Amino acid sequence: MNISLKILDNLRESYGIFISDKLQINSGNCGRGVFSSAVIEQSELLISEFSVPIDGLLTTRKAQHVVESHKSARQVLREFLSHVRICSFEFILENFSTCLNGTDLLVCALYLELENEENSKWNTFLSSIPKQLWNPFMLDVKELNLLTAKCRLPSKCLKQKIKISTGFLKALGFEINEEILNWCFSVVLSRSFGGSPERCQTRNHFKIEIDNSANFCLCPAIDLINLEKDYNCEYRWNENKTAFQVFSRKKILQGQELFVNYGTAKSEYEIYNFYGFVLPSDDFQIEFELQRIRKSIYDDKKIDFLTSQLDMVFAMEKLESSDYFITSLKVSADLRRLANRVGKILEKEENKIIYQILLERFKKNKNLNNNLASAENRVIEVFLGCKASEKINSEGIKTKSLISFSDLSRNS
Ligand SMILES: C[S@@+](CC[C@H](N)C(=O)[O-])C[C@H]1O[C@@H](n2cnc3c(N)ncnc32)[C@H](O)[C@@H]1O
């Protein structure tokens, strides 16, 4: 049996989840996702839990049981509950070993369940999750500082937040494997339903939430569906059946991927902070590209260089269209100066990214030029100091973005 079928089958079997036979797991543009293997009509019910509905959900309540079943956990928890209801972030950091909210409980429960390996009820679920997960909270401080405030601050908060689970598990006597704990935190951030761990900046978040609701939970199978703006499915919490269900919003053709919306109110920044990716759109692409750059290069010089590049890009945003020409010249001159200083350390791929970032900026400024091709030519001109048309004519459209620093320094 192929792996994808096995994952769904195991989930069905372990948690009594009903999953339509029309679904299968494949690799698509967003990594692994759920695809249709036959036509799905509008409003078809695709995933629902009929038999033991709530059994398949790892809720905060169940996470609490997992945590509390550990010897000494009760005492550690009780200690905190006896004297704190709401507390400041600083307090939590000082007393983190005893303060757990829904997110922390889930993180700790996952960590403990991983220790149990095959004996864990959640083993099938945990095995269905990719081994490698990435979220911005994993960036180190230097890297985080490369991000703009909107990205940086939530990530920094989340980075602090994980210290709470770390402290608690340490208090239980565990030696923490940071990689595994980061994985657990990533799972909760990117795969939990209904909660709002992202609001960790607010004080209210630290109200103890050891509740019995099922609306903040991890949900096997449904969490395999990727996000797209133009989503074709939606999930609903069925109060009567106390079950999560997935319905198609429109007809889905055979072979098409299923998409949901992870929360209509989520901003691009929240998506980035929680799920570790951005939808290819607008300004946010810049942050994303910066991450890609960061992943491929890593030394101070390069980061300084890129940071100053991005600063220039951001500065451009504030300029009026009349400044366009001057700005582009300035950027061009600065780029060349920087290129000379830094030398040829950057690879072509990174130049391409910088070029694309700038190009997006140029394109976005509609007042400047409604003709995108011409805006693009302008970027090439500014970058290469040569006639864009020559470049395009002789090398074709694809080579336009392959700018090398040898080009830049030659023209400086
Ligand atoms: C709830 S899981 C979805 C299933 C996941 N792709 C998997 O293999 O298990 C959320 C994660 O899927 C990925 N993802 C979902 N939608 C995406 C998209 N539109 N583009 C890129 N990655 C996406 C991100 O890594 C995100 O953190």
From TrEMBL:
Gene3D superfamilies: set domain protein methyltransferase, domain 1
One GO molecular-function entry: protein-lysine N-methyltransferase activity
SUPFAM superfamilies documented for this protein: SET domain
Any single Pfam family the record assigns to this protein: SET
SET domain mapped to chain residues: 13-263
UniProt superkingdom: Eukaryota
InterPro entries the record matches: SET_dom, SET_dom_sf, SETD3_SETD6_MTase
PANTHER family according to UniProt: UNCHARACTERIZED PUTATIVE METHYLTRANSFERASE
The protein's name: SET domain-containing protein
